[in-house]
User: Fold this.
Amino acid sequence: MRKNIVIIILIVVVVMSLGYGIIQKQRADGLEAVAQEQTRIAQEQGRIATEAHREANKQRIRANIAAQMALGEASWASKQVKKAKEENKLNYSSCSELTGLAIAAFMD
Assistant:
């Protein structure tokens, strides 16, 4: 009788261990699925960040080119104003006169 009780107790322990193992496997499978999804999301976000970085670099290059062009045009306009001022031997004291002259020179 005593052997039967020991066997029954061992069977209960084995069944409980199996149940616990099955539950742990289900949890691990669920966590693995979540980890795979998180990995996929992280890779997608990395790709998006790389694209954004490339686009920002392109915009930075375009802005630098536009700034260089603006500096060149400003230098050219300044030379045109100076040239017109020297040709006319006029003293432009007001800012609006210089602006009008610069615009007129730029339009030519």
Summary: The chain has two helices and no strands. Residues 2-88 form the longest helix (87 residues). The chain has one domain: 2-107. The chain has a mean pLDDT of 85.
